[in-house]
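Support request, please re-run this one:
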Amino acid sequence: MRQKTVGIIGGMGPEATVDLMQRVIKATPAHDDQDHLRMLVDNNPKVPSRIKALLEGSSEAPVPVLVQMARDLERWGADFLAMPCNTAHHFHPAVQAAVGVPVLNMIELAAGRILQETPDVHKVGLLASTAVIRTDLYVKSFAHRGVEVVHPGDKSQDKVLAAIRSIKAQTFSSASLDALNRAVDDLIARKAEVILIACTELSVIAKKLQLSVVTCDSAQVLAEAIVAEVMSAQLDGC
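Re-run finished. Output below.
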């Protein structure tokens, strides 16, 4: 009998991938090395920009690279896949269709967690990339649950995107943090009862944010789902 192996479609960005791995390690009930999960990780920062593809109409599409990464991970022995990038989930259907193993859907997992833990919620505020907002990824997930998704105003959202880019560039500053905290205030002013951190770059610095309402972090939800998937079943073989 053996445990399942997770394959991580990573590099979007690299630090967010490492952050997910750390979250998986911390979420695993382990007493020794052998108790931890096997992770096959393609930490590939060469995936074409999802934001440029979705917002700027770039001709360099992420899908072929994401599909090849998924197929490679499956070939290397992954029993299921995870993709620590909210924006990349716009391409989740294409990635799932390309492989024979399940690809966890972080969008659905995060929405489901919020509804499980705060079943009476009416408004969820998104801290996310502008591409996630414009493609309505979370709007689609929450719509049939009767929950409204709100996001910061345009000027505030521009600063959120700038902060995300500063994390990728390792230039995150106190000014970036102030902009994110003002975006949180904006969401609360728009009656958000739950703040959803819907960008894995923001998950990297989430502990620095001033959050006065219930918060859900999509990266943490994905990490816990990975552990649960592995712990839920043993596979035949060695």
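DSSP finds eleven helices and nine strands in the chain. The mean pLDDT is 94.
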